[in-house]
Amino acid sequence: MQLGFVINDMSTEQENYTTIRLARTAVNRGHRVALVGLGGFIYDANDTVRAHAHVPAASHYESDAELLAELQGEQASTERISIEELDVLMLRSDPADEVEERPWAPTSGLLFAHLAALRGVIVLNDPTHLAHASNKTYFQHFPEEVRPATCITMDRDEIKSFINAQGGHGVIKPLQGSGGQGVFVVNPESASNLNQMIDAVIRDGYAIVQEYLPRAADGDLRLLTLNGRPLMVDGTCACIRRYNESGDARSNISAGGKYELVTPDADALRLAGIVAPKLMRDGMYLAGLDIVGDKMMEINVDTPGGLNMIEDLSGLPFSAHIIADLERKVRLRDHYKRSLTNTELAMM
């Protein structure tokens, strides 16, 4: 199998990223892997989609760090590859990282992903629907019962009115963002700083304001789904509890949060069951559900992370399970002589 990963840029990849773990697992299973930055695509003069890609040179790597060191090393070089010769292209770039410096990048990456899908490459997550899921408004299309009360606006008075209606409590964050960046928790004690919080968020665009869920003080769950269902190996779900003991309200790992392997409770599994049909319909092959109590805070469909942490804590081969599932999809595509649509293959 020839497997490509679309990333923001090789220079910004880190060894604890899910993408690097999946790439190493694929190489170690005997597959050819290529990593393509958002600025590396080419539409050739002969109507071929190509890219400048980083291609691992070895056939086996003992650690994620070893693979990344090679790809980012002084001797690293890129190869000019044909995207159309790939079997699978996984879209693993984070659009939130491009908002300020390269706002053109996420859209351009999706355009080339569309071209690849039209040429028979299995593109995951499905680029047609991923284009509509690039910010947190995507979450508002899921059933109301899974979501906290939410307001999306740039109007300061609307934000204040929403916070007041919630008894002075709420969470304010940018509509486009990830990793807990620009997230503010409002309570009656912090009301004097509300204007500054609002200004800090809306200076870059729309704000999303949500009700505060008290159980968030205990952290949240990150539950990974595959083909619309909880990712599971040997009876264990790919699920961690993220929490922060420093007093920071954010539990994101990138914001200093800690994590532990947990079994999702009945509320989490019920929520996963409710959102599954839309994830399947939209071809959201790999997703990360962020859950607090009986509500879902976010659904990450761009770069769901945590796989390496879950795998290291459990000792179970979740990444190998995903790569094996991709191998299965390629076989299905070939059995049906490429007559299945990309969205169909994404969730089979």
TrEMBL record:
InterPro entries for this protein: ATP-grasp, ATP_grasp_subdomain_1, GSHS_ATP-bd, GSHS_N, PreATP-grasp_dom_sf
Gene3D superfamilies in UniProt: 3.40.50.20, ATP-grasp fold, A domain, ATP-grasp fold, B domain
Entry annotated with the keyword RNA-binding: no
GO cellular component: cytoplasm
Domain ATP-grasp: from-to ranges: 136-327
Record's keyword terms, sorted: ATP-binding, Manganese, Nucleotide-binding
GO molecular function annotation: ATP binding; glutathione synthase activity; metal ion binding
Keyword Manganese in annotation: yes
Protein name: Glutathione synthetase
Annotated source species: Lysobacter defluvii IMMIB APB-9 = DSM 18482
